[in-house]
Specification:
Blueprint lengths: L3 H24 L8 E5 L5 E5 L9 E11 L4 E10 L2
Antiparallel strand pairs: 1-2, 3-4
Amino acid sequence: MEGGLYLTIRWLRSLKEAIYKAVHPVLSRYVGFQEAEVTPLADGTASCTWLLEPSNEVVLHTLSAHWRRIDEGNFFLTSASIEKVS
């Protein structure tokens, strides 16, 4: 990603934050930054690998995460939604 390490960190943090805000109501607990690995993809989506403790894990069915750079790459727009498997 262009823009250096600082912009890359801001981008990844924004994407992870969107994912955590989406998953919090499903898990009903705090989710730490070390509990997921997020991989942004070139098409503007992202994949997520959960690193939750087995005793706390809830099956998370569908994660939809998207990102986009705006304003000449100086800002990021990120969103995420999740569905819980019954």
